[in-house]
Amino acid sequence: MLPNGSALRGTDSFTPTPVDIDSRMQLVEVLSPVILDKKPVLAEKIKAVLDACLKEWASIDLLLKEGLAPAHMLLFCGLPGTGKTLAAHWLAQELKLPLLTLNLATVMSSYLGKTGSNLKAVFDHAISRPCVLLLDEFDAIAKRRDDGSDVGELKRLVNVLLQALDDWPANSMLVAATNHGELLDPAVWRRFDVVINFEKPDAPLIEQYLHDMPITDAFRQSLAKLLEGESFSAIAALVLSARKRALLEKTELQPQLFKLAVHSCTSRGHMAKPLDGEMLLMHLEGYSRREIAAHFGKTHPTVSSVIKRYLGE
């Protein structure tokens, strides 16, 4: 028996995927096997926690024999695009378990009482065999019950969720991800073994993320400093856009990356003047600071100040 009293389940196929009775749309998406193109780039403190979880799962039989459970209920909090969903995929890949993802749009029925039934159907399906269940946008179904703006239906939904969390078996992993941890019901927080806060990457982590890009090391370092404050998803979109522009305009990739990075920096209010970006572009193209100063009618110290402000040089 498992620590929560449920029997160890086999590894046979899932029962048929549950659907919403009215729309006939699937309530959960199943991905098996999970295969990522590359290992996600994670902050060291996050990687250490996830590695510790995987170490426990590597000895799951020993733990269960002693009436102990591996870390199997994880809550990921943080801004959008910071790697929460990707980390869940990576865990499923490393555990060699199917990944089930809650289809929130389908689960949240407009009919009173139906959302709770849909959620219960998802959990009943997930516990039919070992898996990783991802509950993305978790705050939509786990909002604090003292929120006076919500109808009783959502409060009842939290009660259904709490019971499902209490019944979650120890030989499957549940990962809940939210952009708004402050909205979660306090009782929900207490159900999780591990809580991880995902933050926007700093420059060294962005540099690591860009490691496989066909750009020089010096440019990669400068680009990472410009992109500091962006999410991984925003950086991925920027890289994709730059690659397409370079291909269609028959230009080098580095200038395209830099132009988009400068635009990103400006739009986030991290670049004081558009002229600063033009100076930086000339600098990265190999012009001397005196040449840049002469081109824009600025002093050499002014150009040096701009370069130091954004690139730390």
List keywords for this structure.
313 residues; alpha/beta; Rossmann fold; 2 domains; six-stranded mixed beta sheet; 14 helices; disordered N terminus
Descriptive account of the structure:
- The N terminus is likely disordered.
- Helix 6 links the parallel strand 4 and strand 5.
- The longest helix has 17 residues.
- It is elongated, with a radius of gyration of 24 Å.
- It starts with about 25 loop residues before the first strand and ends with a helix.
- The chain folds into two domains: about 170 residues, P-loop containing nucleotide triphosphate hydrolases (Rossmann fold); about 110 residues.
- About 50% of the residues lie in helices and about 10% in strands.
- The protein has 14 helices and six strands.
- A six-stranded mixed sheet has the order 1-3-4-5-2-6, covered by helices on one side.
- Helix 5 runs parallel beside helix 6 and helix 12 packs across helix 14.
- It is an alpha/beta fold and about 325 residues long.
- This is AAA family ATPase.
- It comes from Noviherbaspirillum sedimenti.
- InterPro entries: AAA+_ATPase, AAA_ATPase_domain, ATPase_AAA_core, P-loop_NTPase.
- One of its GO terms (molecular function) is ATP binding.
